[in-house]
Design brief:
By secondary structure, the protein is an alpha/beta fold. The protein is built from 15 helices and 20 strands. It has helices at about 20-30, 40-45, 45-55, 70, 75-80, 90-100, 105-110, 125-130, 130-140, 165-180, 225-235, 265-270, 315-320, 340-355, 395-415; strands at about 5-10, 35, 60, 80-90, 115-120, 145, 150-155, 160-165, 200-205, 210, 215, 240-245, 255-260, 280, 290, 310, 330-335, 360-365, 375-380, 385-395. The structure holds cytidine-5'-monophosphate.
Length: about 425
């Protein structure tokens, strides 16, 4: 299966959890396994667990694919060598029979010209119902192949045909169908980004908020993600300004870098860099600063100093506020100590609205995740219509994927204008 691509569609059935193991088995054989998770499927397995195993994109709804330049539903349906639907519910079989295409999974199935393998799993009465039997017969006539269902005890306590086929049987069917399927000559997943002629500004790194001339309030941000984004924007042709808090990182090639220390300086440098077509606020800006930093080093020995904190200006919210200088696309980050992906997405959605930015990249920065300071990031990409889980990637890959999305969005906006 080396290099073959098996698109797995996971509808909402209790056996969906078994597909996590199927993904692992397919990948162990060298297959690429992008996944479409239906709304119902997402009730049984999370996008994060699926993407962690698949190592590829998990697509959750049609509108998340507005970015046709990266991977539209037509390409998703054509660029795979084989499509597997497991566990296929009575509902998706009926939709496939009728040619419905109201969500991503069914749109992909209707648009594909590739072989499709279906592994049904449902209650025995639903399987034996004349409607399902009619649908299965029709789908077989249409050239769809079936594996299972197996017979035995079902999740609902009844006994009979309705269990998802054994994974070994699924693997045998997949291997057989792949052996017969022509190798698809597909273009790279990510279109070459072009931002030539555009301007971009990126904030990156922490800020240092002085307590006195030698002490400050800060955080553990390394700036690696923001710097990688600035470098990727420049590689894509954008004239890029990077406003960096204190970091040990070298200036990225081809990027104009302004080094600042405090949030107030970062805001001043960011607004001075306007107008810009694109703004990406990746900096971990200190939310508070000391109202009146001491002019000289505070001596110990007396009573411990009391720090009177005041809130810093919000650079992202300032840039995203409506006005003539608002960049066409404003992207923020949401670094949270929240390991539940659904809760993380909820926070990110709220932040997107509160700050009036267009997209939010949300990530979990709990100590131990290795996000702050490390080379990897597991992000949720939150836009107005949806959220996508990108799985654990190198920060450089997150940057490249984001820039491909930005390029597609900018060309869509130029086309709409
Ligand atoms: O509100 P919170 O700090 O979680 O928001 C994170 C996002 O807002 C990041 O994109 C960060 O760069 C930006 N931000 C900012 N100025 C602040 C605080 C956060 O630009 N003072």
């Amino acid at each position: 299966m080396d290099g073959r691509r098996v698109l797995l569609i996971i509808p909402g059935g209790i056996a969906a959890y078994k597909c996590l193991e199927l993904i692992r088995l397919l990948r162990a054989q060298g297959a690429e396994v992008p996944v479409v998770l239906t709304k119902g499927g997402g009730q049984f397995v999370t996008p994060l667990s699926v993407s962690a195993l698949s190592g590829a994109n998990v697509y959750t709804d049609l509108h998340g694919l507005i970015d046709e330049a990266e991977m539209g539903h037509i390409r998703l349906s054509r660029d795979s060598d084989l499509i597997v639907v497991a566990p296929a519910t009575a509902d998706i079989l009926a939709k496939m029979t009728s040619g419905l295409a109201g969500d991503l999974a069914t749109a992909v199935l209707l648009a594909t010209d590739k072989p499709v393998l279906v592994a049904p799993a449902m209650n025995v009465k639903m399987w034996e119902h004349p409607a399902t039997m009619r649908n299965v017969a029709q789908l077989r006539d249409d050239g769809i192949r079936f594996v299972g269902p197996a017979s035995g005890a079902l999740a609902d306590g009844e006994v009979g045909p309705g269990r998802l086929a054994e994974l070994s049987d699924l693997m045998t069917s997949i291997e057989g169908m792949l052996a017969d399927a022509p190798v698809v000559d597909r273009p790279a997943l990510v279109a070459v980004a072009s931002l030539a002629g555009m301007t971009a500004l990126v904030t990156s790194g922490p800020t240092f908020e002085p307590i006195d001339p030698v002490r400050f309030i800060s955080n553990a941000s390394s700036g690696k993600q923001g710097h990688a984004i600035a470098a990727a924007l420049a590689r894509a042709g954008a004239q890029t300004t990077l406003i960096s808090g204190p970091t040990d990182l070298p200036d990225p090639d081809g990027v104009m870098v302004h080094r600042v220390r405090t949030a107030q300086d970062m805001l001043a440098a960011a607004t001075a860099a306007l107008p810009a077509d694109i703004a990406v606020c990746a900096a971990a800006v200190s939310d508070w600063r000391v109202a009146e930093p001491n002019g000289t080093k505070i001596k110990k020995g007396g009573a411990p100093p009391v720090l009177n904190l005041i809130e810093n200006p919000d650079i992202l919210a300032t840039l995203a506020a409506p006005g003539p200088d608002r960049p066409g696309l404003v992207v923020g980050f949401a670094a949270e100590t929240e390991s539940d992906p659904d809760a993380l997405v909820t926070i990110a959605r709220e932040k997107r609205e509160a700050k009036a930015c267009d997209w939010i990249i949300a990530n979990d920065v709990t100590p131990g995740t290795d996000t702050f300071g490390g080379d990897h990031n597991a992000v949720q990409f939150v836009t107005e219509p949806g959220a996508e889980s990108w799985g654990r990637l190198e920060k450089v890959q997150v940057a490249e994927r984001l820039v491909a999305r930005i390029a597609a969005q900018m060309s869509a906006m130029a086309g709409a204008a």
